[in-house]
Amino acid sequence: MSQNLSEVCQLERKSDMAERLDKSKMKCNSPKATPSHGTKSHVVKACENGKEKIIRFGQKGVKGSPKKAGESEAYANRRKSFKARHAKNIKKGKMSAAYWADKVKW
Known about the structure:
By secondary structure, the protein is an alpha+beta fold.
């Protein structure tokens, strides 16, 4: 019962976020952080071939890879693993969350 109640509350919060986000006021292909979203760390209005789509991406609270200059071998391997694991979805282009996660967080 308490799990269902928390799921309902989460859905209500997500619908509130969707109502506050005005797609017409956002710049195309300009990602920004979403500190008040429950699960996703970033949002972007993806525009390609005359189509527009709001994409939320990035797991909240998880750091991507640090700056490439002077990074450790472990972080380099971490980045390579992410890119290999999501390569198929990254290739889909600007209209996919994986593309934006790769560009912004990795």
